[in-house]
């Protein structure tokens, strides 16, 4: 089975370099144009986060397929840092503490790293376990893709940021493991 992990197109918050997790904003014009300029691999099935930016992206990339929505694939909840730019919070003691933890501490008022990883990786595994399609596209968030790449390809979470509209492909190896293709 081929698995395509696609980060949604750009939103206004992304363009402004804000922490956009649970904020449910649509794609901006630049994001729509960016998605339309990329040739994405074929998919027999499309899976999406429930947030607008992913659903819109799925509809643009795979207009002939109806995206199946899974709540477990929503982005990290950044809590008090949600919708903020670095410049807005760089002097915040809780933000400094979070940075010093290497991004491992829980976001104040948000989600813990462990909870996030268990949620998104567990959801992904359930979908894959029950999948019969030959190719499946996941139109999700950068954090989800980085968590999946860390768990299944051994790529440290913050070492491979995924840009808006970017995709990576994986395949099952016949033994139940995943192999990164690109």
Number of helices: 7
Count of distinct structural domains = 1
Q: Order of helices and strands, N to C?
A: EHHEHEHHHEHEE
Looking at the structure, the CATH topology is Rossmann fold
What is the arithmetic mean of pLDDT?
94
Main pleated-sheet profile: 6 strands, mixed
CATH classification, class level: Alpha Beta
Strand order of the largest sheet: 3-2-4-1-5-6
Describe this structure in words.
The chain has 182 residues and is of the alpha/beta class. It has one domain (2-78, 112-180): Phosphoglycerate mutase-like (Rossmann fold, 3-Layer(aba) Sandwich). Helix content is 35%, strand content 15%. It is built from 7 helices and 6 strands. A 6-stranded mixed beta sheet has the order 3-2-4-1-5-6. Helix 6 crosses helix 7.
Secondary structure blueprint with pairings:
Blueprint lengths: L1 E6 L4 H4 L13 H8 L8 E4 L3 H10 L6 E2 L16 H4 L3 H8 L12 H17 L5 E6 L1 H12 L13 E6 L5 E3 L2
Parallel strand pairs: 1-4, 2-3, 2-4
Antiparallel strand pairs: 1-5, 5-6
Helix pairs in contact: 6-7
List keywords for this structure.
globular; 182 residues; 6-stranded mixed β-sheet; single chain; alpha/beta
């Amino acid at each position: 089975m081929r698995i395509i992990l696609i980060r949604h197109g750009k939103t206004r918050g992304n363009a402004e370099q804000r922490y956009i997790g649970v904020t449910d904003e649509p794609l901006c014009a630049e994001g729509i144009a960016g998605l339309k300029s990329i040739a994405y691999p074929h998919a027999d099935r499309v899976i999406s986060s429930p947030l607008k930016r992913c659903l819109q992206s799925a509809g643009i990339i795979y207009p002939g397929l109806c995206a199946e929505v899974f709540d477990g694939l929503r982005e990290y909840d950044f809590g008090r840092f949600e919708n903020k730019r670095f410049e807005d919070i760089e002097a915040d003691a809780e933000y400094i503490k979070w940075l010093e933890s290497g991004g491992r501490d829980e976001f104040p008022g948000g989600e813990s790293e462990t909870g996030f990883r268990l949620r998104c990786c567990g959801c992904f595994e359930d979908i894959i376990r029950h999948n019969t399609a030959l190719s499946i596209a996941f139109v999700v968030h950068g954090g989800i893709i980085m968590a999946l790449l860390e768990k299944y390809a051994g790529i440290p979470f913050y070492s491979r940021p995924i840009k808006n509209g970017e995709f990576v492909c994986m395949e099952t190896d016949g033994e139940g493991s995943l192999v990164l293709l690109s």
